[in-house]
Amino acid sequence: MLAELRKHVPAGAKTVQAAFEDLRPGERHGLIFAAAALHWTNPEGRWSRVTALLEPGGVFASFGGPVQLADPAVEDAVRAARAPFLESDEVPSADGTPRGHDMQWPGTELQRSEWFTDVQQSVIERRSTMSSRDYVGLLSTISAYLELPTSEQEQVYSRILQAVPERVEIAADIIVHLARRRCEQ
């Protein structure tokens, strides 16, 4: 993603690739973004850390969203295949906001924060068809599967491969949140 960003910003723009926890306050940035990883960060102090890393007026951006099968019957087959290992493969909202709510997490927390303003949420619809193997490869990047022991991952992926057709259609909308750091008083 950083390579793609570099294609679209002026040559003199400085970019930094780092884990959130590895960034140290002191040097401030005009943009900080998290791509489908914000739920992995420590919630305690998350927004104060982001604020300390952003210059006044700087933008925080978050990208992520659920991957769902478009065909309910195939979704049911996957649910049954993963049931011995996972009740659900959804990433729960960090603040309990239910899916489908007008504003999703982290936008809900950003709206409540004293440090941010101009909170926006956009949804980029994404539909695609892929092979069953590519679909399982995609599942292997989802937190619920990553947290399983390796032996269970192999078993659940095998069961899912057997349960789905050779090609599957997925809905993988990207939910984008933008928020501007308030300028210091």
Q: How would you characterize the overall build of this protein?
A:
There is one protein chain. The protein is an alpha+beta fold and 185 residues long. It has a single domain, classed as Rossmann fold. It contains seven helices and seven strands, in the order H-E-H-E-E-H-H-E-E-H-H-H-E-E. It has helices at 2-6, 46-53, 72-82, 107-112, 132-139, 143-146, 150-163; strands spanning 29-35, 54-64, 68-69, 116-124, 127-131, 167-171, 174-181. The strands form two sheets. Strands 1-2-7-4 form a four-stranded mixed beta sheet. The chain has a three-stranded antiparallel beta sheet with strand order 3-6-5. Strand 1, helix 2 and strand 2 form a beta-alpha-beta unit. Helix 3 (72-82) packs antiparallel against helix 7. The two termini are 34 Å apart.
